[in-house]
Amino acid sequence: MERRNAMLRAVGIAAAGLLAAATGARAEPSAAMDASPPPPLAPQMQHGVEFVTGGVGDAEQTELFAEPARDYNVRITLTDPGGAYLSDVHVRIADADGNTKLDTRTNGPLLLVELDAGRYTVEATRSDGGATERRTLDVPADGAMPVRLYVALAMRSGAEHGRS
Length: 164
Known about the structure:
Order of helices and strands: HHEEHEEEEEEEE
Largest sheet: 5 strands, mixed
Strand order of the largest sheet: 1-2-6-3-9
CATH class of the largest domain: Mainly Beta
């Protein structure tokens, strides 16, 4: 993992150098390039909602469901209609009043979210111009069982499916 982060940082610095050479500008690495990207599966916070996304490959799925999954009461799995996992899906979760609680792009087919009890609308849209899927999600107050939602997104542009 550290090797991958170092490689990505080196590629970014090299690209900046090539751009500077082509334009005649003097290139210096920015603070953003020096900072390591967040580790995969790092918990994030948005609008007071904690979430984590990932699950590319067996190792990430094992890591994601080993311990972090216990900390989240909503588990969303993103697939195409045939069951193949999807990544880079735009997911928006809004509460019953329409307030956005989460608006993100996934880094893998799995999205774990910690939501307060209540009714939510989950909207997932493929990044390749494919379908948008909308679902109603009820999160129980007792939290006894995690809510699992499977979202199958077709490739056809403009096709919408609504299931509750």
